[in-house]
Every structure is written in structure tokens, then in C-alpha cells.
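agent: user wants the structure for Class II aldolase/adducin N-terminal domain-containing protein from Streptomyces brasiliensis. delegating to structure tool.
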Amino acid sequence: MGLPDVEGLRERIALACRVLAVTGLVEHILGHVSARTGPDSLLVRGRGPVERGLAFTVVDDVQEVRLDGSGEVPADWSAPGELPIHTEVLRARSDVTAVVHAHPPAVVAASVADLPWLPLVGSYDIPAARLAHDGIPVWPRSALIRRRDLAEQMVSALGHRPVVVLRGHGLVAVGSGEPAHAVAEAVTRALAVDSLARITLAAAATGAPLRPIPAEDLAELPDLGPAFNVASLWRHLAARAEHEGPGTPLRP
Ligand SMILES: [Zn+2]
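agent: tool returned. relaying C-alpha cells verbatim.
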């Protein structure tokens, strides 16, 4: 992995936080995004002295720390309480270069109802169908992940998958490759889980049985590739964040 463009990456992370807010994956002030800047370091969205929530994230909210949490950061900035989510995923998964943690209400509702994560839909949302088909793990604990040992349990549940649902809490999604791309990839994966959760809740509410789509239909759902699934969707999401967001600059 080459050296990332740190300032560009800080903007990407700040924008990703705004995207999570406008898409409803985070509410108010909870949730964070990170990206790897080296073998032992990451940029992460924390809190400054005038925290206004994810929708109003600015570049200064994103600072660089090491995997042990130390770093030369502004005195009035603090890392998220759940920093171990990010550091332990990055420690355990050398392929991962970005981590998204969010509390999407639909994902939380589906998780506490213990609804299964099945490929209920096909062409409606191909990435969601493929994620569900390949398996969406659930970490059964609802604890705040402030300690390394809790984060290690969560990472075990994640395994080598791109997402893990945290029961009664939210989700963690990861991305890989070039870090700015990875941030966008992790956001799109989080959105896919949210999309599936909404459909699952709506279908379950009818009382109808939840049945995966047939294998022959799954076989007709191609992976449309990162140019479509990540790059195009990211352009849409970035535009939404700009038009539906606060309209305040990322660098005030
Ligand atoms: Zn959380």
C-alpha cells in the first residue's frame, strides 16, 4: 500500500460521516469512520470542542492516531469511546483499510427481533443479496465496545466477512484497497445491510414467511463491480450529502 493522501483522506472520511447522516444510518452524534494511514496508524472521526454530530462533520474532527490510541492530536479533540472497534479490526485484518461503525435503526430493530439475514431480494439490491447469501454474521452482545477484549470478540464474529451486525447496537462494515476507495466501499456495504434490514422488517411485519430467493435467481445476480457498486454510488451519496446536508464547508 502506498502512502495515502492524508488531507484528501480526511475529507473523504468527513464526507462519509455526512453521508451516514443524510442516509439515516446514524442519528445525531453517534457513529464514526476511520481509514488506515500505515501499518500502525489510522485517521478517525472523533470529537472536537464544539461537536455538532455526524451531519456537521468537518475535517478537523478527523485526526490521526496509532493503533494503541496515542497520537499528536489537538488538545481539545478526543478519539471516539469505541476506538477499539477500529483499531482491533485494523490489527486483525491486514486487508482492511477502512472501517465504518453506525447505529442504523432498521439494523438494530431487525437484530433485536432476531430476524434472519437472508437474501430475500434479488435485483432490487444485488450487493445486499450477495452479502446475505455469503453470510452476515451477528455479534450477539449489545455492549459499548470501549475495551480491546470486547473489540476482539466482535472481530472474531466479523471473521473475514465485510460486515458484522452488532445485536442491539448497530453494525461494523469494512473496506479494502486504496483507503479513500475503501471508505466509500465500507459505506456502501453498510447501506446494503441497512437496505436488507428495512426489507426484512417490512416483510416480517406482514406475517409472511421469510424465504430466500431461489438459487437459480441468485445465479443471475452478477457482481457489477466496484466502478458501479462503489464509485457510482459514492458520487450519488456525496451529491446527496452536499444537497441535503448542512451546506457548511468541510474546511470552515
Ligand atoms: Zn456504537
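agent: one observation worth passing along. The chain has eight helices and seven strands.
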